[in-house]
Amino acid sequence: MRKPLEAKRSAGMLNQRLGLVLLGGVVMSSAAMAQSVVRVTPSVSTSMTYTDNVGASTNANSDFIFEVSPAIQISRQSGRVKGSMNASLRNVMYMDEDDRNSSFVTFSGRGEVEAVEDLLFVEARGVISRNNLSLFTGRSSTDTLNTDASDESRNFAIAPRLQFRFGSAGDGALRYQSQWQSGTGSTSGQRVDTWSANVQDGRAFGRLGWFVNYDQTDSHYDDGVRDVSRDIGRVGLSYALTPQFSLRGSVGHESNDYSSGSRQSNSTHGVGFDWTPTNRTSLSFFNEKRQFGRGYNVNFKHRARRSAWQLSYVRDFTSTDDVFTGSAEDYYFNLFSEALSNSITDPTQRDAVVRQLLSQLGVAGSGAQVGFVSNAQSLSRRLNGSMSLTGVRNTLTFSAFRSERSRLAPDLIASGLDQFANFDTVREVGASVSLNHRLSGLSTLSVALSRNKATGEGVASEETRRTGLSVGLSRSLGPKSSGSLSYRHQRADGTTDYTENTLTATLGVRF
């Protein structure tokens, strides 16, 4: 039983949060009336979930979970103001274990303003989410039943940019980004300032071009953790063998003070190429000698009438600010939206189908991040691949990834809960396959299967394997209403050991 004062305080906080969401809706709705290209979609989503393992533990207890979430989605993709945002006030209530009840805001958005035509641009993005920050214990990071306040993280960034052109084919950009990330139960809060300059002219001397770029990143930590910085500069040449194929090479210099505060520096050199045989196919490759060894950046994309393929591999320095630049929700939304673009040409209908599929996977609305959050700087290797096949009524999508992060600068770790507190290297490998089948113009059946394994090596050694299966049926009930029924099974073995089955019914209304 909550004390009266605590209940009153919680009610006050709830009213404040609800007021912020409604105020944002009023402001953006006014903007929508002034600018018809702005799409504003207020909505309310309700759901009831039965789970046979509410605590995701070996001691399974069943419970019913009810949720009512007013939300607003705003999007504008033309003109001098572009971007989108999704905000919701999640109110989660448990029938038996009411000490788990919570109300909180989730937010995901990014946009750009062209302040001065063809010259000054301002980018902004933000994420507020509650997701498990551990790869080894508890639910998966994308599970929407993660509602613990200690797992809440907030990340915001603003980045003004000067962009200019010169000569017949030259262009350049000067950019500054300031990013803030709140602390969590396992990490310290931090601010990351990044300065970058890029100038290039690919046709300065006919087929021969040149480029210059420089980046400096300064990370400032709270809680007494020391500040660190990194910078790298390059100058290079490019040569177009054909209009579709060009070579490039560079030399440069980089330095950082990750190693106990002592500055380390060295020279760099690299070669690569860019190949675009058609407007549907592209391949880029760059291999560079770096301070940590060899760095790679490979990206391949191909899109045919009934299929889409993507493959990428990156080996580079990474940190928390890199993890927050792309969320799991954004990654999978783009993946499935691309896969369904041929079979569902209407953007609004495709958006609804994709979000329903993400909800079944436990990704939609979670704000979950790609990777895990840590104060430590690290060396990252990540391989991503995806393939989608589209038929008249069916879309089959397969994706796989493999990542490895090796700790640098152990003195940057602020908590024993940090993933790198006991591990020197953390590896994760996983794959998922999903089938989307349109039963009719109003109904869609979706099936998804996922499997992944996380391994930590160092002072301690841990491993967790996770398997997930979901089946869902969604149906449009009216012009602005929809409902769904879904079943999900998940199993974890290793450091975390549990099995859970959930059945969820949802009803959503757009205004």
Protein model, in words:
- It is a single chain.
- With 511 residues, the chain is mainly beta.
- It has one domain: Maltoporin, Chain A (Beta Barrel), CATH 2.40.170.
- It has 4 helices and 22 strands.
- It has a 22-stranded antiparallel beta barrel.
- α3 packs across α4.
- 30% of the residues are buried.
Chart the SSEs and their pairings.
Layout: H1 4-34, E1 39-51, E2 63-76, E3 81-94, E4 102-116, E5 120-130, E6 152-166, E7 170-181, E8 190-205, E9 208-221, E10 228-240, E11 245-256, E12 264-278, E13 281-290, E14 293-303, E15 307-318, H2 320-324, H3 328-340, H4 347-361, E16 378-390, E17 394-407, E18 423-438, E19 443-458, E20 461-478, E21 481-494, E22 498-510
Antiparallel strand pairs: 1-2, 1-22, 2-3, 3-4, 4-5, 5-6, 6-7, 7-8, 8-9, 9-10, 10-11, 11-12, 12-13, 13-14, 14-15, 15-16, 16-17, 17-18, 18-19, 19-20, 20-21, 21-22
Helix pairs in contact: 3-4
Order of helices and strands: HEEEEEEEEEEEEEEEHHHEEEEEEE
Distance between the termini: 37 Å
Please tell me the overall pLDDT.
Answer: 83
Strand content: over 45%
Spans of at least 5 consecutive residues with low confidence: 1-36, 364-369
How many strand elements?
22
Strand-pairing-aware structural class: mainly beta
Tell me which CATH architecture applies here: Beta Barrel
**Gyration radius from CA atoms, angstroms:** 24 Å
Question: What is the 3D shape?
Answer: globular
Q: Helical stretch count?
A: 4
- State the CATH class: Mainly Beta
Number of domains: 1
* Helical proportion, percent range: 10-25%
Give the quaternary arrangement of the chains: single chain
